């Protein structure tokens, strides 16, 4: 199947937002999605964007049952390793079910890596739920290392009241 991978535009945010919800449903946590397409537009298309995004687009003749031509996305941003330097973090990779198995996921992932290479990034990291065996296999097949298995890293998060408390406890400048 023919497809094109390109940088998302502000105008793609509604479609990306739709697929973010589809991915959350797949990940069995749709209630966790609080983001709107307006926030994506604001945060991805400002002077210092918080993320970058690629979309996969198929020609009209291959559009989905619902008439959609944007059928996948990869959303990533830049991080920094004090051991290695410039790195990328892949927040989401998603291809709509009816378009899977056509090389689109691999295309998106490779394109993220290519963008990173042009910026001298030396790592591409991401997180996968432990039951998401198809995706664990997909990344492993591309040569990714499972750091939880090999190095025992835990994935830690502050949010909500815990984050609020932490911020409120910050030492005040005199
Ligand atoms: C993971 C995902 C993005 C892969 O996209 P895709 O378009 O179906 O994958 P591709 O067609 O590009 O497959 C590329 C390669 O991976 C292999 N592959 C795809 N799915 C695989 C799987 N479940 N297990 C093992 N290999 C797999 C393909 O055989 C292909 O191999 P090849 O290069 O040797 O031919 C897609 O299945 C998806 O959106 N899944 C649900 C969401 C998800 O789990 N996202 C990741 C969250 S971290």
Query: Could you give the distance between the termini?
Result: 63 Å
Q: Spans of 5+ residues with little confidence (pLDDT < 50)?
A: none
Strand content: 15-25%
For the largest beta sheet, what order do the strands appear in spatially?
A: 1-2-3-4-5
InterPro entries: Acyl_CoA_acyltransferase, Diverse_Substrate_AcTransf, GNAT_dom
GO molecular function: N-acetyltransferase activity
Domain N-acetyltransferase: 3-164
Organism: Anabas testudineus (Climbing perch)
Structural notes for this entry:
This protein has 174 residues and is of the alpha+beta class. It has one domain (4-168): 3-Layer(aba) Sandwich (Aminopeptidase). The chain has six helices and five strands, in the order βααβββαβααα. A five-stranded mixed beta sheet has the order 1-2-3-4-5, sandwiched between helices. A hairpin with a 3-residue loop joins β3 (70-81) and β4. α1 (13-26) crosses α2 (37-44). It binds coenzyme A. Coenzyme A binds at residues 23, 26, 93-95, 100-106, 126, 128, 132, 134-135, 137-138, 141.
Key features?
Aminopeptidase; 5 strands; 174 residues; five-stranded mixed beta sheet; binds coenzyme A; single chain
Could you outline the blueprint of secondary structure elements for this entry?
Layout: E1 4-7, H1 13-26, H2 37-44, E2 52-57, E3 70-81, E4 85-95, H3 104-118, E5 123-126, H4 133-141, H5 147-151, H6 160-168
Parallel strand pairs: 4-5
Antiparallel strand pairs: 1-2, 2-3, 3-4
Coenzyme A (COA) is lined by residues 23, 26, 93-95, 100-106, 126, 128, 132, 134-135, 137-138, 141.
Keywords: Acyltransferase, Transferase
Protein name: N-acetyltransferase domain-containing protein
Domain N-acetyltransferase: 3-164
